[in-house]
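job 3f2a | input accepted
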Amino acid sequence: MKLIATDLDGTLLNELGQVSPENAAAIKQALKAGIEVIVATGRAYETAVPELEAVGLHLPMITLNGAVVFSENHEKINDIPLDKELAQQIAKSCQENDIYFEVFSSKGVFSTSREYFTQVVIDIVKTSNPDVSTEEIKERIDDRFRAENVQFTTDYEAILKNPDIDIYKVLAFSPDETSLAQIKAAYQHVDSLAITASASVNLEFNHRDAQKGIALKAFAESKGIDLQDVMAIGDNYNDLSMLKIAGHSVAMENADDEIKAHCDTVTKRNDENGVAHAIQKVLEKR
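job 3f2a | predicted structure (286 res):
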């Protein structure tokens, strides 16, 4: 194995949203052994980097599902914007269906309403984790908005028509899975669009060429690495494109069964250092 690609949330990050010492140590071992390591995430670069640098990792990164790729030296290697007219249509559909959405752009993240997002997240978290306090949830939300420097606006038309702003991803977020399914059905036949998800409560809209698998393939080729010598690790539907093209695909134990069905092996859960476990198996074979 010459290249390892790992997702962040639900994969490399534990339930606290951190890279465990065990996962960090395993990645450093792989690097020392001459194996390239790249992170592939749906997150924006600004919110992904701190979690890695907190444990001394400086890695190349595929962000926003493949829309923007960065080197380990923070240099932008490539970007693939979403068509602005299409982004505007998606935003309008979300508004008409009362679905919270965000626009990820070259000028940061734009949101419709902090209050709306907060209430949606509280409802979702309380359903599965009733013991978590509302105040704790609000603190996590505030941290997220602060980390991503989210800007609030009601005038999306001005943003989407601004020639100085590139749109990379539209994120639709709702506890109503039926509404999300209707939005997905309305756009799933648009050839220029890739629709994925990083959780059951969201949809992520990117340019069709802005996918983790496509970005990983390009990165491997730039390093002269055959895809058969690539291992990809992930847990959700926005990871499928890279799991399908990698020579060896690894699903997290916490992944959906459909994700596991597309993978060669299943490693431990993200809160059990599953990434470290998968990397150690590679190192043992070497």
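job 3f2a | The first helix runs from residue 8 to 12.
job 3f2a | closed
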